[in-house]
Structure prediction request, 349 residues.
Amino acid sequence: MEKKVVAVIFGGESSEYEVSLKSACSVIENLDTEKYSVIKIGITRDGKWLRYNGKLDKIKNNTWFLDNSCTKVMISPSKGDREIIEIKNNVLIHTKIDIVFPILHGKNGEDGTLQGLLEISGIRYVGCNVAASSICMDKDYAHKIVSYAGFDVPNSLAIDHQTDEKEINDFAENVGYPIYVKPAKEGSSIGITKSKNKYELFQGIDEALKFDDKVVLEENINGFEVGCAILGKDDLIVGTVDEIEVPSGFFDFKEKYTLEHSKIHLPARIDNKLSEKIKETAKGIYRALGCSGLSRVDMFVDEKNRIVFNEVNTLPGFTTGSRFPNMLLHSGIEYKEILDKLIELGIQE
Prediction:
């Protein structure tokens, strides 16, 4: 059987660059070399595209772009070519590819922009399409669509630099503190703060506006957070529900990657009836947002066991220790099987 040529793209200009390197290493290490010929394409922090032919250690320690094996590379925009073009010693080297596995978290990778480039080029790729990627990245738009589809969402207010202070104060008075302040289009809890009073609220808004020109103010849901890993397009595979235990504060960037004070419970500490209800809700949200391939649907369970939407990650953390693969592993799907399924789904699109 002829090997499929898989181009793994990693790095990128987003604030989640380091997370991307870790995820990419796990993917590259676990792709079956008997089935796939793997091409490694890195994007530096300043946006340079390089084909990298060195060892994974240099991706892990973020020195890959200094390696002598790196050559400038681009994706051919000519539909039907389905190839990358390397520039080496002023010579153009064309290489056909079957599919792109984009391991780019956050802006310019998870938000539909890279997916748009691949669509124009006619190249198949793993994960959600342009529209779903873009909508899920925007917390404001995602909440509006999920609410319209009939699911519970937190009370929220989208604001920008021009928003009147009275509108913000009225929202705070209506929902009460604490209030979460979130950049609309950032991932991994970057730029998010939890405000306990008016002073902290406006401080948080100033902080969030450093990351995005739109900010979402969101009511606090008293309860706990759960997650669902979903694979597929029509026939959906849902992993075991997990639960985040956060003794204080919230699940910010540091907690997500250190678990210094938090704990992930897999399976979640809930009964089977609630677990199944969460899975069905997650599948409904996944479909309402037009997701395909994969996503992690995050929700809250409040004190009355009401399930409230939080967000969807169309490319969640993908190391072998990350939540998404672990939820699927707990339900009996190995990491390598996840990769095979994602590539199969992407090629079928």
About this structure: The radius of gyration is 21 Å. The chain has a mean pLDDT of 94.
